[in-house]
Amino acid sequence: MINKTYFFAFIISLFFLTYSYADNNSKNIQVNSHSNYQILKQDFKKPGDVTKACLTCHTEAAKDIMKTSHWTWSNKTDKLPGREGKIYDIGKKEGLNNFCISIQSNEERCTSCHIGYGWKDKHFDFSDESRVDCLVCHDTTGTYEKFPSGAGYPVGGDHGSLKGKESVLFKGNKKTYHKPDYGLIAQNVGEPGRENCGVCHFYGGGGNDVKHGDLDKSLLNATRSIDVHMAIDGANMNCNDCHPAKNHEIKGQLYSVESEDKNRVSCEKCHTETPHTGRLFTDKYDNRYNNKLRERKAPEKTFEHLILDRHSKNIACQTCHIPHYSKVHKTKVYWDWSKAGKKFTSGPNKGKPLVLKDEDGNVIYNGKKGEFKLAKNIIPEYFLFNGVAGHTLIDDKIDPSKEPIELNQMYGDCNSKRTKIWPMKAMKGKQPYDPVNKTFVYVKLFGKKGSGAYWSDFDWVRSATEGMKYAGKPFSGKVDFIETKMYWPISHMVSPKEDALKCSECHSRNGRMKDLDSCWIPGRDRIQIIDIFGFLSILGVIFGVLIHSSLRLFFGKKFKK
Amino acid sequence: MKKIKLYSIFQRFSHWFQFLLILVLAITGFEIHGNFIILGFSGAVKLHNLAALVLIILYLFIFFWFATTGEWKQYILTKNKLYAMIMYYAKGIFKNEPHPVKKTELSKLNPLQRITYFTFRFILIPLMVVTGIIYFYSSINMGVKVNPVKLISIIHTIGAFVIVSFVIIHVYMTTTGHTIFSNIKAMITGYEEIPEEED
Fold first, then answer.
1. Which residue of A has its CA nearest to B143?
2. Which domains can be identified in chain B, with CATH numbers?
3. What ipTM score was computed for the predicted complex, to two decimals?
4. What is the rounded distance in angstroms from the CA atom of residue B138 to the CA atom of residue B140?
């Protein structure tokens, strides 16, 4: 009898188990409202305590996070072109750029964009799970903020002057940051939204749209003309629609910190490879977006549309469909560190670093950072790119006669299958290097007075000495400046199809492909000598006709019968 | 003077139609080549392709007509009086010397014309058609490892210059007939007045 009851209970529970299992598999996993969980209803003192509470249920989350580059800021590869087989780290941690140059010795400031707490120097414990910052990505209240120079901590965190405080003013932007209401935030966590990703990816480099050019706060409330995918009056897609995550590993990469052709997001995930003549969407995604998109008329099958489809073999979708980037806000396109150091000579700010702004209020000179050029609605530079990028690393010898030095190099040639024409933001600038050792230098920028930090002490030699010493790299004691260039492929801010490039914008002598060293492009290319001989022959013929006819005229009269 | 019928209605139609198509092809072609902007690249490409297609069809008709009427015999190359023709254009024409080759219904083309038109019809135009077709298919077949578009462009462009030069000379040569406009008139009406032979 008892056995029978147990048996039925077993069967029934099995039924429920399979039912709930099937249910979980058929739909996305149902996220319960976190406000029900007792463990989140506590008065959290430290941000790390929130993490510990999260990890009681999400037991693997921190372990997963720690494998990702969002945590490690490292990207080891043995496939750097030209030096395959040796392992190099081309990640953010040791990499160079021509914005703020490097995070080395400046962690305290830079790691406000790290998904962790307390990475203030190279001794950070990357294995401490309580240091993972769950909230910066999963806050849905919009109230969670890390302090800009708090090594990843928000106000109240265990770092310098933040400790025990309720609110702290950050002098850099004159904004007051507050201690987060951890209980409220923790009970309202959810999937990352645009604001979560944007807080770093829109504001990287110290402000809105400084770095990428195709990622800025205009995407929070984008219109179709800015970005058809994220437009609130369009597809209204979220970052993670294209950048899905599996075990916290988020799809996508960028060649500022990547070298290999892997883990890329591509348009073809959702769109077919013949979007101009055939169906716009692949099966998988047909059901995903609103019927408005599905019911769109099938594209016309004209010759022009066929040609456009064929173009996708050689040309990235982005090239035609992102005719401009930085459509709303200005992005930095040039950063000359060599001009840094000027101070106000009069007025209330006398003696402080000079700051100059353009008519829109964008800083174009800062005594700490040098001179900037900003621009918006920028026509990208175009490259033949096969998905493999080289990088100039801190140990690499550079040849100053080859100015500007490319910090990353785009590989591609017109006969390889993977190569396509790609639009890129080309960031130019002048940055410090060691003219004796012929290497770039890490410079200490952020730090207290007397630490050697340039932003406090305004001495490049000391700044480079501290930066290189910190990283254990050789430094000659001399600093000079050199022009550099860095390429950031453009993939966001896809325009509506009406705004896509017209044929003649590339197929013309002085069009967008003017400077691209590529295969033959009709309308752009010619063999000059053939054109010269061709037009000479036409001229010669006309000349001959003129001579012949005037001779006829002349002699015709003379020999008139 | 006697009037002879030189050109049938088909010949005249195909001639002027061909002239129009070549004009369109030349203008759009040089626009595609990047020399000037009239229609815009895509418009020029589309019109060029259309005109080329029509020209190909026209040529099929022309060749069919040649074959069925025996007119192809007009293009049989001959050295006979070739030198005389050259000397006529180089010298005789200035002295109002008589044309060394008489036009008849059976032989409309002088030996120089035979060479020129043979080259134009059976070499130059087919070359342009073939390179054009390859060009067309390589432009809709991008992404292949070896794309001949550069070589094809070069040949096609050279051909275009030759054709333009030909058309200029051809138009001028029409003025060397019995009167300045007699040849053009013949190509419009089909009839040409030819001096009576002095027996």
1. A313
2. 2-194 (1.20.950.20)
3. 0.90
4. 5
